[in-house]
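pinging the channel bc i need a second pair of eyes. not urgent but kinda urgent?? the chain im working w is below, pasted from the shared doc
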Amino acid sequence: MDSVDLNVLRSVLEWRRAGQRVVLYSVVQTWGTAPRAPGAMLALREDGVVIGSVSGGCVEDDLIARLHDGRIPADGPPVQLITYGVSREEAARFGLPCGGTLRLTEERVGDPAWVAELLARCEAHEIVARSLDIATGEVVLQPASKTDTLRFDGQTLRAIYGPRWRLLLIGAGQLSRYVAEMARLLDFEVLICDPRSEFVYGWEAQHGRFVSGMPDEAVLNIQTDERTAIVALTHDPRLDDMALLTALDSRAFYVGALGSRVNSQKRRENLAQLGLSPQAIERLHGPIGLHIGSHSPAEIALSLMAEIVAIKNGVELKQKKTLREGA
C-alpha cells in the first residue's frame, strides 16, 4: 500500500481514541480509468473533516454530503459497499475519466485496537494483511509478503499494509540536503549517516534521522529490507565504498553512488578487488539518476529521486544518466 494511507490510519486512531465517530473508506474495485487504485483510503470524521483520498475530489464531496444528509445512519450496518460511475453521466459527474467506475467499502470504525496493532507492526517493518468481513465488520490481521496484493471477492476485503519506504543517505553534504527534502515530500523516511562531524551542522530533526557509527555499521543497524534505498553521496571512497560493500549484499531495493561514468567503473573494479561478487556489483546504480541534463544539486536530487521512485514502482528504466564528475 501507499505509505500515505498509513497517515489516514494514524488519524483514525487519534480520532477514535478522542471518542469521535469515524467512517473509513477503501477503494476495493475499479473499472475503466480511475483516479486512485484499489487500496486507497479516506477517513471521514463525524464533523466532516477528511484525510486521504479515493478520487480526484468529486467523490470526496459526495462522501461528506452523505454524512450531512443522513445517508450514513448511526444505527446502520458496520460495512456497506458504494459504487460510483455506473453510467457515463454519473462517471462524468464524479470526475471519473473515460467512464470509469469506483467501488468503495464504507466502514464504521469501532474499537480501534486493530488500527493500533497494524500501525505498530508496520513500524516494526512488517507487512500485514487486513481481512475485513463485509457482513460483520470483523477485522483480522495476518502476516503477509511483499508479493501479496489486495483481493476482494464481494464478502471479504483483504488489503496489504507495509512500512514506510526508507532512504539511507551516506553523507550529510549539500546534495544530501536537497535529496532529503525531496524524499520527505515523497513520504520516505530519511536516515543519514556521516561520521564526519563537520557536516552535521545545520541539519534539523525534521529533515531526517541521523544513524550513528560508520557507514557499514549504519546499513546493518537499520535492518535494511526490501523497502530501503541506500545512496552513497560523500564522494569519498573510504566512506562510500564501506557502505556499498554491505549495502550491495543487503535486501535494499536500490543502491547507488555519486560519480561520473569513469569513476563509477573504477568503483566497480575496486569493489571486485575487495571481494564483492559480480552479482552484487551488478546491482550498483552509478552514475545515479535519470538523464534530465541536471547540473545543480537540486536538479541532481530530482534526477536521483525520479530513478528511485521509478524502481520502487516497478517501472523499467529506459534511460540512464551520463554525468560529468560530481554531477
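so The chain is about 30% helix and 25% strand. and The first strand starts at residue 22 and ends at 31. — does that match what u expected or am i reading it wrong
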